[in-house]
UniProtKB/TrEMBL annotation:
Keywords, comma-separated and alphabetical: Membrane, Transmembrane, Transmembrane helix
Protein name, as recorded: N-acetylglucosamine related transporter, NagX
Spans through the membrane: 12-31, 51-69, 81-104, 110-131, 138-156, 195-215, 227-245, 257-276, 288-310, 322-355
Record InterPro entries: HGSNAT_cat (IPR012429)
Domain of life: Bacteria
Pfam families the record matches: HGSNAT_cat
Domain Heparan-alpha-glucosaminide N-acetyltransferase catalytic, chain residue ranges per copy: 7-221
């Protein structure tokens, strides 16, 4: 068996580049001028940006398999593991709430949902599932969740309508969030990280755990890479086929969206594992590894630093000054906006690098 503690450079790098991509698309120079691929699909459909969050949840699933396999095999008391898992999930959730509160800390207008909050829920559910079930049960449960979500979203009439609706703010998930999700919602009447749409997001984590099972199996490294890529292709195709009756939609995290992005994550991980861990082509991976070593910390820091780098009260806004200078030398406004996003990713790389060089790894 592959040693559970053996680190995959490909996985570490994939985690880091995913976080870097999150920062890149979240912090353009101006939201008024962004290249289409760097935006989420407005509703149905998918862009390159829409793959980023699912990739991170997929990596969370893979990491769960690597973190807990040896402990499960050694018969470690589950009570201690449960306690640590719950505490970690609470920490991530609370940090997510903190990011939603800054800079004004107005608890009367707090948004409870969010990216870190969804990560916390997916981690909690998937980790507990991993400790108590095998890969077959996890696969069956994941498939069942996706079918259930599809049927619920398309067959249950949306309250106030005589049929199921799948429009922004007018669908079963949005209706449930209105009654279940506390606090304000990102889009007023609905939230892309809402309660009901987190259910299929759990399956993204489960797909990652299944990939982790494969990477920890007794198969040869070449077989593992081949299987990862070979499994990913039919998953993507199934998602595209399913999309003919249930649209690909990141905001609702529809079942086809889960499969298309999850299958793509299988393919990317398999290809990266083959190139980096098998062939040893590690050039260029250091940036990803450095970002990935303190992934959530860097994500949080990016939100905090934005109070400085996107503050109009500081030198008229550093982003605004950058855009003026860039367009002043003839660059298009869209290019200038993207370049500032790249600059901001570089700014966040500095503390990530300093932490890495000092062997400081902040784990929530």
């Amino acid at each position: 068996m592959t040693t559970p503690h053996a680190r995959l450079i490909s996985l570490d790098a994939m985690r880091g580049f995913t976080i870097a991509a999150m920062i890149l698309v979240n912090y353009p120079g101006t939201w008024d001028h962004v290249y289409g691929p760097l935006l989420h699909a407005s509703w149905n459909g998918i862009t390159v940006t829409d793959f980023i969050f699912p990739f991170f949840l997929f990596i969370v699933g893979v990491s769960i398999a690597f973190a807990y396999t040896k402990r499960v095999r050694s018969g470690a008391p589950k009570g201690d593991l449960y306690r640590k898992i719950v505490i970690r999930a609470i920490k991530i959730f609370v940090v997510g709430l903190f990011l939603n509160l800054i800079p004004y800390f107005d608890f009367s207008d707090i948004r409870v949902a969010g990216v870190l909050q969804r990560i916390a829920v997916v981690f909690l559910a998937c980790a507990l599932l991993f400790l108590n079930t095998g890969w077959k049960t996890q696969a069956y449960l994941g498939a069942g969740i996706l079918v259930f979500y599809w049927l619920a979203m398309t067959l249950i009439p949306t309250p106030g309508f005589d049929k199921a609706m799948l429009e922004p703010g007018i669908n079963l998930a949005a209706w449930m969030d209105t009654y279940i999700l506390p606090g304000k919602m990102w889009e007023g009447t609905w939230d892309p990280e809402g309660f009901f749409s987190t259910l299929p997001a759990l399956v993204t984590g489960i797909l990652g755990m299944l990939a982790g099972h494969l990477l920890l199996s007794s198969k040869t490294p070449q077989e593992k890479a081949n299987y990862l890529m070979a499994i990913g292709v039919p998953i993507v195709l199934l998602g595209l086929l399913w999309a003919q009756v249930f649209p690909i939609n990141k905001h609702l995290w529809t079942s086809p969206f889960t499969l298309v992005t999850g299958g793509a994550a299988f393919i990317v991980l398999g290809a990266t594992y083959f190139l980096v861990d098998i062939l040893g082509k590690k050039r260029g991976t250091s940036v990803g590894i450095i970002f990935g070593a303190n992934a959530i910390t860097v994500y949080v820091l990016a939100d905090v630093l934005s109070l400085i780098f996107y503050n109009d009260q500081i030198l008229g806004g550093l982003n605004n000054q950058f855009l003026l200078a860039a367009t002043g030398i003839g660059l298009s406004i869209n290019l200038a906006s993207m370049l500032y996003a790249i600059f901001y990713v570089s700014i966040n790389f500095i503390p990530a690098y300093l932490l890495f060089k000092r062997n400081i790894f902040i784990k929530l």
